[in-house]
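Q: Got a minute? One more chain.
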Amino acid sequence: MTELPTTSGLAAAISGGSAILFDLDGVLTPTAIVHERAWQDLFDGFLRSVPEAAPYRESDYFDHIDGKPRFDGVRDFLASRTIVLPEGPLDDDPAHNTVHGLGNRKNKVFNDVVEAGGVKPYEGSVRFIEAALARGLKLAVVSSSRNAPAVLKAAGLSDYFPVVVDGVVAVAEGLPGKPSPATYEYAARLLGLPSEECVVVEDAVSGVQAGSAGSFHSVIGVDRGAGRQTLLDAGATLVVNDLAELL
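A: Always. Here it is, folded:
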């Protein structure tokens, strides 16, 4: 991975790169906050039926869930409490206490919030996207969420991204989720570029780990709560609080 200074403009950050591969939630839109609240609502309710387990904590989102495919997040959180549930069918009823039932329950809460309030993208991220396009860079979104196309549409960002690799695509193509680099590598192939020419932009530890594990140009971390040093330790080349800092 290319080493970059900790303070850098866009030109330096993407020097030698041909494309930028963006995570969605927390990077382009503040939907990570909605996800975080939906997960807390889910597990606060579920854990009431398991009183011997430690209650849900804010840190659980970053430690076990953030950036991962939804059902992996369910499994990893349950494992942190040594709770084992049946998997259930993929389309299991959200009322059922199975891995897929809990994941589908969380998804319903998330979609209800998005549909009720819409999505407003981060202003700095939109400016960064437009600056990248002005430089002739190719763009893609790589998200663990199965809701990525709907969120992009709600945020008015769909037209910027000819390539979207989301949770649905990952399952269809048999790609492991983050922290594996597979979904990012697949996006690079769809853009017709080697990974070495693609910059990864992530706010989640698992996503930064995915970028670091692949042979990408660099990994820009966006600190929306995970912590600057945590993202650097996970493999980020540099970390900013907002992508506008690189303009």
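A: The domain at 10-30+119-246 is CATH 3.40.50.1000 (Rossmann fold).
Q: Perfect, thanks.
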